[in-house]
Amino acid sequence: MTGPELMRSTTILAEFSRNGGKVASITAKDKLRQQLGKDMNIAGGSINFSSEKADQCSKRENGIENVLELVGIPLPDMYSSELSLFVLEAGVRLLETEKPLIMYLSLTDYIQHKYAPGEPEADRYYRAMDAVFGRLHRLGAVVGLVADHGMRDKSNADGSPKVVWLQDALDREFGKGATRVICPITDYFVAHHGSLGSFVRVYCYRHATPEAVMRLARELPGIEAVHDKATAARMFDLPIDREGDVVVISDGSTCIGTTPSAHDLSALDGHALRTHGGLAESHVPFVLNYPLNETYARRAARRALRNFHIFDFAINGVAT
Predict the structure, then answer these.
(1) Tens of pLDDT along 174-201?
(2) Could you tell me where the beta strands, DSSP code E, fall in the chain?
(3) How far is CA 312 from CA 144, 289, 303, 308, 315, in A?
(4) Whole-angstrom Cα distance, residue 249 to residue 177?
(5) In which band, very low, low, confident or very high, does the pLDDT at 119 lie, cut at 50, 70 and 90?
């Protein structure tokens, strides 16, 4: 989603803001800012803005103005580590000046897409993040760190992207127009990944049945899992009315595209393609800066944690 119009639920932030809690949401990308701002009580003192458009903030829409002056950093480029570091620095300044009850800081994964662990730019970025996490801790915040996904290199031995061109394969088998492959990683930040990820949806028309598409997809090298609509919805907690007829997932070293002409990889600028979306990228860190209380320690030991559990554990689960 690139906006709030398809959201079917309110957010934790909105509910707190509508019930007397002052919340702050700062995102790197403005598309997420719009979604998190849905139903948020900005007039009641809550704050919601992005570093992408930090120079355009108003009290009416964002609950704050003059953000660049507050943070003391120029507007960052959308393809830079500074886009995320601006978010963290703004979070520190808001914690110092506005003291929100809950603050949500969302970063971009540009650095992780572009640089492998251990590369100097990646190390510099993580040192900078770690320093800000320490400042948030010293200011007394309960800090929860989690990711929406992992990241892996998806390249051949010669450095070229390792891609299954699924639409091309389906067109050869069933003819053009019999299927449509949708890459949900698509957004306007094309330099991250050229819309190549490890999870795609296939819609079937005419004689191309889901069963036939699944048989073909399972035979392709680099494909780890293929599911029909009902199975995918059940396994991954997806709304079935928005699911494709078939879900195709590649393995940890491969990604899936439609056809080469539909993916702009020029912005990779010589770097290896690093991307996400598959089962191999589903395990992420889950970090809190205080130990869990007894109730939540038992809960964590009893079941696998999901990344969205970070809200519950940070709000209710720590022994400060």
Answers:
(1) 999 999 999 988 665 655 556 899 999 9
(2) 23-27, 47-50, 102-106, 144-146, 152-153, 163-165, 179-182, 199-204, 223-228, 246-250, 255-257, 274-275, 286-288
(3) 10, 14, 14, 8, 5
(4) 22
(5) very high
